[in-house]
């Protein structure tokens, strides 16, 4: 169902009236022809509006339309874009082909920020861009996804850099009626307003619809008449306020988001939360179930089954947490209504002995499917949440990973799309996740790829110069220096880009640790290297702003002037120019703080080569031949790591990167071969089509199926599962190991086998291991009222492989029921392992309805 909207009357002639439809669908943001169509209406205004087609249409003098509709060049391009748009809408999609049975249910995707396009600055960095790219690929693939977010009147700030290198946060004040969003209307054609609760009072919310190709994102807005002035400010700014604003935003996003889905009548089966900010969705859904008379434990089980949680934060301090008092206050209407469940609700956000209510804990407790955003981040997250899961081994913690990607049509340069279209198979963009698609890159003549790359580099340099000239003019620099800036940077020099949020862990100033060595690189007359830096620091982040001042100061030192430049106001537009125009994309975060990182993925598909710390996505993307790594001892203290990483950066530049770029003269075929190798190996994997397919296959569809099974027949199965869990939890204390016996400690006749039989865990390959003597182990386990078949009994020991210890899990088989619900189990183990010293016996509850082996964080060890 598509909610009712109505376009404003712009007075376009009939022949070009579909411009409105195109302007109000962010599909334009990933269609080069559509962007060019709007730009061609009025290039100056197009730039002034930050490429906002709605504002452009609204502000263009109506006298301009008739001549345009008679201009054959414009009309030809208009027709082409409309026809392309119609084709897009009518294509059969991947989801339709793959999951025809699941077209009727939707997946709601909650995120505090969305980065679709520079004209809608409701993102701060990677998290938001990822959410935007997720939606765009969902549209391309036909996934029935619905986005839920907030519409911030002041967006995220515009960045100016003053003459002292001080970042100045300039407020945006959006007039929503000039953005590519439309208010959702009710059946009477009036703006739909829903009601959520903050503390003990109702808050009215308007709902704005951003159309993103086939899908929609609904953005909540608290700036509604009738709300108190404090409440009207809740959605004023992304990450703008104090903890009170923050929690109020999160309450609105989570609970208001669910209410919006209901008001819109959208049948939603799965709820995906992008980071913990939206975890309060669970509170609202529990409230719904309780109101319908469903017992608390059943409600919780149902919410868990239908929730997917993606965590993005690799350090404990990065997770949102509030005092319990704040939760009690801001969720007071919920607690008043369900006073008898207040402790259970609060428990959902509290770890053991933890005084704060942690949004990540809430998310983990209410989502059965959880994932990190790269392979390494998956490991880091499992390790971080081990104690949360009763200190099981890291590998057993039920958090997986789905590595981030980027939306190729949005980030790949139009010039490269054209080149690829000439050499890659016909449907290369639709088939971007196939490795074979990219094999044909070999066919592109090196000179052709280099020409396009040089063209993009020149375009980027023009963009950078304009940015600097504006910055310097505003800051009142001498005319001569402003003039000089319009000649800064050279398309012939090896060009390195570094742009992202200036968060301290990203260590933007690492390269400046040895200015003389940097000087020799930058000012080598035959082999010059130049750097472009850009990024915003959060207005409250003083160390981040200090980094900006440092880069600014260095960029003005004579020997670096015009060769190390700092651009202001990093946004998606600038990001596109940079990732498309540089030779090298540099990323040197402190490992493992970069959960994934995506800017390097944008750079890679454009033929820029990554030079990065083996952190986040690059730890799995780098294969030794498709870029360069920055080395260092990952276990050393931060200062040592910094020194080692810096040394690695300089050495690699001096000995590998600069020579490869320059050794063969103006056309380095070796360099171009590496560009191709980078595109070939990385483009098919690190895109959001692959990522969204992974989410669909691994999380959405399994959750959807499980949820539908759970709720069928008046909640029959979910009630059974919830009752079962409750029974297990309250009776688990009866389960214990009574007796363990190593049978064959003094029995020479023990069998000799090459592998460990009956193992449920990762067992070493038979061939890789010499035969070892085995022994039998028996254990007597008491179960009390719990049926032994509702558990598994296993032996856990550790084995060292390649410097690391891995758990080996051996299933024990029940062999005999003794008296009084005591069961005897048996297994075979390598003979040298001794009970308690080397191995333990573990009992854990199981059920076919569990998503993971440690769904109930209960187990007994002995
Ligand atoms: C891609 C992108 C990011 C994310 O960059 P990382 O290097 O992955 O942190 C941040 N901001 C903008 C504007 C981007 O386009």
TrEMBL record:
SUPFAM superfamilies named among the record's database cross-references: UDP-Glycosyltransferase/glycogen phosphorylase (SSF53756)
Catalytic activity entry: [(1->4)-alpha-D-glucosyl](n) + phosphate = [(1->4)-alpha-D-glucosyl](n-1) + alpha-D-glucose 1-phosphate
Region Disordered, annotated ranges: 745-771
Record key words, sorted: Allosteric enzyme
Chain coiled-coil ranges: none
Limits of the DUF3417 domain: 12-120
Domain of life: Bacteria
UniProt keyword annotation of Disulfide bond present: no
The keyword Transferase appears for this protein: no
Gene3D superfamilies, per database record: Glycogen Phosphorylase B
NCBIfam families, per the entry: more_P_ylases
Family statement: Belongs to the glycogen phosphorylase family.
PANTHER family registered for this protein in UniProt: GLYCOGEN PHOSPHORYLASE
Record's protein name: Glycosyltransferase family 1 protein
Species of origin: Paenibacillus agricola
Taxonomy of the source species: Bacteria, Bacillati, Bacillota, Bacilli, Bacillales
